[in-house]
């Protein structure tokens, strides 16, 4: 079973009306529903604007250029260039807090690869751009006892993890841009993690904290059954083409 599926059909804080409505239509199998009229009808019912649905329910529909909007939190505060902060702490010699301007001033890396969600959807050739996570780790001075990273998010709920070796890969970014635009709120802006070689659940949206730890602490979906090492095509019992 795929835990994300149950999240999608029964998200935290979903108004009962929606849940009943979706239950009536039997949308557990929405992956096979593709009639455009039905999609539009559902989007209208859910408020008309897919990217305004904090529950991610409309995210089950094929929209947004192939992307689904996912959030396990019912609502997420908006952070601007003035209010956003990213903290780097834990087993480091120089903990610090970055503003968006600080992050923009660092060297930027642009990668163009396929995005692959563990529920099956894939978005080919998606540009992501930002600061290599390794750059922030080097600046922080990671201590020798460190083994892993814990990521936290300003949605107050989602968490993720990487081993230190994974985190130091050149295709792991603290991303400021996606599809050659600043990352909008719904895609996890202003700053999200981007872990190119792994299933998209590793790419934590609304990133607010990077804590260096002495062991991997499984993230939100991983506690619910997803693989901690989430290589595309080599985890979660899936055989997708690698994204790199
Ligand atoms: N904070 C946060 N990050 C998250 C999620 C989430 O619910 N909350 N969902 C994950 C999953 S399962 C996927 S597939 C992608 C979806 O990203 P998108 O909404 O930009 O398409 O975000 C990942 N990062
Ligand atoms: Mo996902």
UniProtKB/TrEMBL annotation:
Transmembrane segments: 20-38
SUPFAM superfamilies xrefs: Oxidoreductase molybdopterin-binding domain
Pfam family, one: Oxidored_molyb
Keywords: Membrane, Transmembrane, Transmembrane helix
Every Oxidoreductase molybdopterin-binding domain range: 75-221
PANTHER family for this protein: OXIDOREDUCTASE MOLYBDOPTERIN-BINDING DOMAIN-CONTAINING PROTEIN, PROTEIN-METHIONINE-SULFOXIDE REDUCTASE
Name used for this protein in its record: Oxidoreductase
Organism encoding this protein: Streptomyces pluripotens
